[in-house]
């Protein structure tokens, strides 16, 4: 399999998670922003989840609906295709990022337009659609406030739900003042760093564009096989603008976003908003079926490594993910390392299990991701579809090739532990040589002692002591 | 092999032999607890809950007897100094009835023939009914039906005034999903447009209407 593209430059794959993270933890502004943000959302989530007496039942239903869908994904995909087509939409299938980008670029060019507006979507970030469209002479404008900040700042998203979580208000003001003019209507004179003023600047900057752009590109949170309905949850109204006003709508959606029936929404429209923004309901949810209100509608179904994940008995549960980001907000590692260290559009605990499965364990970065966790289990506890992230991490650790020094060490340990005489001899040698053990190990083994102290080696092993004293009697 | 067949074949290969799963639905489902059918006490409880939850999202809420809808609507429009108001097809005319002696405080605009996006952007507000309202989450659902109009009508004007009838209020999300039709384009609205993208500070009003005012008829 050629490496699946996940929306990050190849250079990002050459550094491991620990070296990316080491850089991030030195950035005290970033750590302050992240801590404040993740703790705020985490508390809000806990309080609205606590309001529902049947949260655990909803969670179990959500998990089972997703598992059942994945088990019968072929059947439901075909049913969805029929329903969307019957409602006047067009369905396209894309095996990888390249094919999806080609399909979308072709559809945009067929309209004769050179500009599109976009609703925040993980799938289009994953395939690097904006860059692919730019290469074809089409400019894609992000319309979600956080995505706009990321796009104008020539930056990478660092959180699923709040992609500009690593920027504070002063930085955002600076980005708006310096860059808005290059992309369209410049920032107003005398722009302050009040969140209200910044949001207003974004409203003005994008208003013209919404009214005049003829093509929009979106993702979707859910697709209903039974009815062919797509569902988008959002807060700002930029989603409604993109879904409603343009003449042509193109939605790029991962094949795992499917739900069998309309009724299943009663579960997920409770699980998702409470888990993601910590609200009882997000400000706007739009649903549409096929060509709504005379629009031209195209659905691009994206594989891009998902069927590969589906084939793994342990790892396939990652496909239940509804991208709520609750696991990011409770993760002690994410809180300190930030989203960029994960080197893909999917950061945090879900990224640590999804990215290496989608992309394979070929790069240094992807082999290090399953270790980007203390296995504390907080992610599993908050996950609205009960993905056992620690279980998948441990499974991936077993699959990832370990560094050479560690492999040699483990092989040697295995050889010694295998026979009691060898262990006894090694322990005696250790006891005699204990004075010569350095505080830090040399060469490649230093990676181990950089973060730990070498334990003191006792003069005598327990077995040796027992033999000598007869269990303390002598 | 074309990509459709390839993806479907990959899926079949990936899940072959995997066990299927029963879906447990032990959560609170459809309650039938709607203001229309239930006891008056239950109805009042849902109305109060809806009002409280809407206010939590900083919507302006009035709970009034049905006979007073028109006067509350007129008061709201006067307070906002609304000049031009979009009125979708099928809106009950009674909601906009004014005392004959009153000065005409605003103009109404219909959507037939369809207003352009630029026209809609130029009006001051829109008044609609709704299809369903969910008490537990403080949500109003529009289905582009009578008295609601197409989706853009409640999107471009900066002010949305929505009238909710007592019989349209349901207890929870499952009740709403059961009542709604997937064939219609739906817009679920919970408070005015908002963002928390800047340091997680909630700011109301980005691209959608910055003010949502709701009149609930008892
Ligand atoms: S893994 Fe679970 S908690 Fe994390 S984003 Fe996905 S659904 Fe949410």
From TrEMBL, chain A:
The protein's matches in InterPro entries, at most eight in alphabetical order, are given as:
4Fe4S_Fe-S-bd, 4Fe4S_Fe_S_CS, FTHF_cligase-like_sf, Helical_ferredxn, LUD_dom, LutB/LldF, LutB_C, NagB/RpiA_transferase-like
Note whether Repeat occurs among the keywords.
yes
Transmembrane in keyword set = no
Q: Which terms are listed as keywords in the entry?
A: 4Fe-4S, Electron transport, Iron, Iron-sulfur, Metal-binding, Repeat, Transport
Q: Where is the Lactate utilization protein B C-terminal domain?
A: 398-469
Q: Which Pfam families would you find in this protein's record?
A: Fer4_8, LUD_dom, LutB_C
Specify the domain of life of the species encoding this protein.
Bacteria
In its UniProt entry, what is this protein called? Answer: Lactate utilization protein B
